[in-house]
Design a protein that fits this description.
The protein is α+β, with helices and mostly antiparallel strands. Helix content is about 35%, strand content about 20%. It has 15 helices and 16 strands. It binds adenosine-5'-triphosphate (ATP) and magnesium ion.
C-alpha cells in the first residue's frame, strides 16, 4: 500500500539540499543578468503543449501525464516550462513592454523510462529571454548557463552549439534528411522509421540512431540571414566560453529556430545532457501571441547537482541536555534562547537519561553539548562540552552565549 510510484522520488535532506544549492547559484546569476521570476502552474490545458512542444514529439506523443479533469477539460501536468511561459506572456499583454527576461524553477513530469538521472518528476530551472532578436541574446543566455555551472564547480562540461535554420532554410534540410534516411530505412530503429516522414530532424536526436549518422548525415545549409546570425553568436561567445559546433545537434522539441545548444558532462552512469535550449522566434506567434523573438534554456537540476562539486557543510548544531527533571525548564529556556539568537540548536529529549541524550547529540553530529542539572540551575551556569575535542567547562549563562555566538 505505502509504496512510491516508479520514477518518482522522496528527497530527504541531503538530496534536497543539493537542489537548493543549485537553485541558489542560479538565482544569484539571474539577479546579475536581470531575469525576473515567474511561478507557473503545474497543470495547463493539454492543447498548449501539443501546440508548443509539438504534436510529433516524444513528450507529447507518449510522455505526458494528461487526463480529463472534473469539468471535462483535457489537462496535462507540465512536461516542460517554455509553453507555460509563452502562454503567460501572451495572456498578460506585454505589448507595452515586449522585452522580458523570465526565469522559472519547478518540477516537470514526463512518463519516460526511469534511469539514473532520468525521472518521471524532475526539477527544471529555466530562463526565457523574450523580445531580443540579436545574436547577442543567444550569447548572453549561454553565458548565464556557464556562470551557473562555474559557480557550482561543474567540471569538464562541454558546450555544443548548432543552428537549425529557419522557415526559409529548414525545409531543404528536412528534404535532404528524408532522402538520406529513406535510403537506409531498414537500419533505423522502429521509432525512427515512423519519425522519418513526420520529423526527420529528430532521427539525429535519437539516442540509438543519432550517433550512427553523426558523420554521414547531410548538413544543414543555412540561408544568409541564419548564417550571419550564427556567425555572430559564435563571435560573441569567442574567448568567453569554450564551445564546439556540432552539426548534428538538433533538439527534441519542435519550436526551435536558428541557434540550439546543449551543455553536457559525464556523470557516472547517468544521462549526460545537463541543460539545453535555443532560439524560438516563431513560437509565441504560433500560439496566437505577438510576433516576438525569444531564446531560452532549461537545466535539469538533479543532473546538474550530480555533476557539481559541493563544499560539505559542517554541522554547527548545539545540543541541549538536561540531566534531571528539576533542570528541564532551565534547559528548555536555554534551547529557546539559542534559537532566538539564530543559532542552530537541538535537544529537549528530557524524558531520556543523560546517556541517551548524548547519544542523540552524536548521532546528529552536534558540535557542542550544553549540559545542565540542578547544580547549574542554582548557580545560573551551564556545562559546555566541545564534542570534537571532548573538552568541557562550566560557564555562566552570559559567558556561554557570548562564547557560542562567536563560533
Ligand atoms: P534527454 O536528451 O536527456 O532526454 P531532453 O532533450 O528531453 O533530455 P529537455 O527537454 O531539453 O531535455 O530538458 C532540459 C534538461 O532537463 C535536460 O538537459 C536534462 O538535464 C533535464 N531532463 C530532461 N528530462 C529529464 C528527466 N526525465 N529526468 C531528469 N532530468 C531531465
Ligand atoms: Mg527527453
Amino acid at each position: 500500500m505505502a509504496k512510491l510510484l516508479r520514477g518518482f522520488r522522496d528527497l530527504f535532506e541531503e538530496e534536497a539540499q543539493k537542489l537548493t544549492t543549485v537553485e541558489k547559484a542560479a538565482r544569484s546569476v539571474f539577479k546579475i543578468y536581470g531575469a525576473k521570476e515567474l511561478r507557473l502552474p503545474t497543470l495547463e490545458l493539454k492543447e498548449i503543449f501539443i501546440k508548443a512542444t509539438g504534436q510529433t514529439t516524444d513528450i507529447v506523443q507518449k510522455e505526458m501525464y494528461a487526463f480529463e479533469d472534473g469539468g471535462g477539460r483535457l489537462v496535462a501536468m507540465r512536461p516542460e516550462g517554455t509553453p507555460g511561459v509563452a502562454r503567460a506572456y501572451i495572456e498578460n499583454n506585454f505589448q507595452e513592454n515586449p522585452l522580458q527576461k523570465f526565469f522559472y524553477i519547478g518540477n516537470m513530469f514526463r512518463a519516460e523510462r526511469p534511469q539514473a538521472g532520468r525521472y518521471r518528476e524532475f526539477e527544471q530551472i529555466g530562463l526565457e529571454y523574450i523580445g531580443n532578436a540579436s545574436p547577442a541574446a543567444d550569447a548572453e543566455v549561454i553565458l548565464m548557463l556557464k556562470a551557473i555551472f562555474d559557480k557550482l564547480g561543474v567540471k569538464n562540461y562541454k558546450v555544443k552549439i548548432n543552428s537549425i535554420g529557419c522557415k526559409e532554410c529548414r525545409p531543404k534540410f528536412r528534404e535532404d534528411l528524408i532522402k538520406f534516411f529513406t535510403a537506409q530505412k531498414d537500419s533505423l530503429c522502429e521509432k525512427c522509421q515512423t519519425r522519418l516522414e513526420v520529423n526527420p530532424l529528430r532521427v539525429l536526436d535519437c539516442k540509438i540512431d543519432g550517433p550512427k549518422f553523426t558523420q554521414s548525415a547531410p548538413k544543414q545549409i543555412l540561408c544568409p540571414a541564419c548564417q550571419k546570425h550564427f556567425d555572430e553568436v559564435k563571435k560573441y561567445l569567442d574567448g568567453k566560453v569554450p564551445f564546439e559546433v556540432d552539426p548534428c545537434l538538433v533538439r527534441g522539441l519542435d519550436y526551435y529556430t536558428k541557434t540550439v545548444f546543449e551543455f553536457q558532462a559525464d556523470i557516472a552512469g547517468a544521462q549526460n545532457a545537463l541543460a539545453a535550449g535555443g532560439r524560438y522566434d516563431d513560437l509565441i506567434a504560433s500560439m496566437g501571441g505577438p510576433k516576438v523573438p525569444a531564446v531560452g534554456w532549461a537545466l535539469g537540476a538533479e543532473r546538474v547537482a550530480l555533476a557539481s562539486s559541493f563544499e560539505e557543510q559542517k554541522s554547527k548544531t548545539i545540543f541541549v541536555v538536561s540531566v534531571e527533571e528539576s533542570a528541564n525548564n532551565y534547559a528548555f529556556n536555554i534551547l529557546q534562547t539559542l534559537r532566538e539568537k539564530g543559532l542552530s540548536a537541538q535537544g529537549g529529549l528530557f524524558d531520556k537519561n543523560l546517556k541517551a541524550q548524548m547519544k542523540q547529540a552524536n548521532k546528529i553530529n552536534a558540535s557542542y553539548a550544553i549540559i545542565v542539572g540542578g547544580n547549574e540551575v542554582s548557580k545560573n551556569t551551564a556545562v559546555l562540552k566541545d564534542l570534537t575535542s571532548g573538552e568541557q567547562k562550566e560557564l555562566s549563562l552570559n559567558d556561554l552565549l557570548a562564547n557560542l555566538e562567536g563560533k
